[in-house]
Amino acid sequence: VNFTFLINNEGICKTSNVSIKILIMITSSPQNKLSRNAIRDTWLTYAKKNNGNIRYVFLLGESQMTKELEKENLQTKDIILGNFKDAYNNLTYKTLMGYQWATQHCKRAQFVMKTDDDMFVHIPGLTRVINENSKVLQTAVGGNCKQSARPIRNTRSKWYASLKSYPQKTYPGFCSGTGYVTSLNVVTKIVKIYKDVPYFHLEDVYVSLYFCHFVLDLVQPWHSMALTLSWPQCFKFQKQKVLINKQSCYYKGDISTELKKFLFKRLGTEFFDYRLPYLQTGKQDIMLKVIHVKRSDFRQDFVRLLTFIITIGILFPMAWYIYLNARSLKLTEKLLYDAIGDTKFVLRNIKTFTTLPNLHMNMQNNVDLNQTLHTGTKKPVEQKQEDMQQKYTGWFLENFHFIINNEDICKASNESIDILIMITSSPQNKLSRNAIRETWLTHTKMNKGNIRYVFLLGESPMTKELEKENLQTKDIILGNFKDAYNNLTYKTLMGYQWATQHCRNAQFVMKTDDDMYVHIPGLIRVTKKNANALQTAIGGSCAHLANPIRDKRSKWYASFKSYPQTTYPGFCSGTGYVTSLNVVTKIVKTSKDVPFFHLEDVYVALCIKKLGLRLHPIGGFMRAYNFGNCTHNDNTLVTVHQVSVSMLKRIWETPCTPNKV
After folding, report:
1. Do 507 and 378 belong to one domain?
2. What tens digit of pLDDT does each residue of 172-204 get?
3. How far is CA 258 from the centre of its chain?
4. Domain enclosing residue 548, as ranges
5. What phi, psi does 110 have (nearest 5°)?
């Protein structure tokens, strides 16, 4: 019934005489310090460090990190820690603890919002909708509300609800726990009654259970919608009858207008007559009969059916015509490909002429190419070597210009550099870069140890911000090309070129992304173990064969025009691979003779194939992190993929001795 506050900043709402408009309660997990700091540095700046008319607290439970939270709170003074275990299934405790704290220590607040630490809250927008709905919120909770939803019975789901914990088939209406707002008046009523409501672990559903008791509304002020919780629970539909269940929620008063709208939506009828009694608590079941349902109009139905038939009659022949022409085009391409003797030469010219950037061909070369395609004859043998070289020039940017260039990274000391780690990043991912610097990149000792690193980026509207960031970190390489996912090949080859020019004392080079966790002890282990093999190979999570993805909706889409072959050569996943500086130097030299391709791991594999080198699969890349077995991680792990900022912090703070420098 009553929570104990292990950390209690009871003075948050007493620091000044300013009236408090909104108290924002943010549920968080102990390991999510980076997320809390990011929120404090961004949208919580509206709170003016808890001295304005908006106040905030972070809600947490007990864990092994309680001492770290106490240290954090000494600086921030914004944490409320309850006497229960911090876990996702205890989110209801966390929310109710916050409500109890608000009624005890923040009675001056007019409204209370609950949200999570992975949310962005636009404070001006929040203030606006509260002002517009201030009266409604005195008896309601507002947010992204659903009228009804079915419990998830899949045990693997995050929102699993067993039949024992919730035997009903549907939830009552509820507002998503990602963010909802109400008045302190409603919060006070919830605190008084929650001891009478059975516990349920999904806090947004649990909070909604109070509204059956108080006959309040869930409102969605962003769309001016009002959803009454009593309706989905009180009515059972049996054919053309609506049964009012006395054991469910009740609404006392005349609700004829709103009920008509509700029945219209639920039964799907256009017009109906109805008898509407007053619903009161304790009355017997009442039968509400739909007296008349308007029959469907035959003419209207016929017109709809005719429209549908005509539409199908037009669209189907068009689709069939496109399909046949597409097949014909593919067949023509194949016959043309087989008919030409010197297929490699002609295919190169086709790619060069149609797709590759920065290529300058004279008119004579175009005429020669057209003649070759139309006649099916080979190019004359006596063609000059200079002309051939002219066609290859521009297949790839020969020299990159470094807009930001930290050329002294590998010259900071006389130590030998074992590994240079190149991390491709996007300009907007500053939080990810900072998180990496604060965690696994600490092994580099601020780029002064035997492991060095750089972040690889391209040009964007955020170039000035990157220059400011680089003034502090001195670890960014910015190239003269647009920063985009399809330019990831440019980014990687720029890094390789930079390594051959400014980091020649590195033995090995690793390429990875900014959503990765790299276990440096494991990386050092595998490079030492495979040192000889990596002199003529590239190592990582390698696939020997893969098919191009032709679905345009895919992130890895490759058109027939950009890659006409049916299979890729073997390649190592671009999430993380390692090789020697010797191989990197060869790739840079041969890249000008290999047609550009936007998927960088495939492009690097094409260079490897042209050089006659090989792929070397190494275990430990793209593994799952085992939080319960540090020894296992140290012996097998190299990289973990798709790691968020909060998960990265959690991995780093896991008490594993091998993790620490």
Report:
1. no
2. 777 888 899 999 988 988 888 776 677 788 888
3. 39
4. 416-652
5. -85, -40
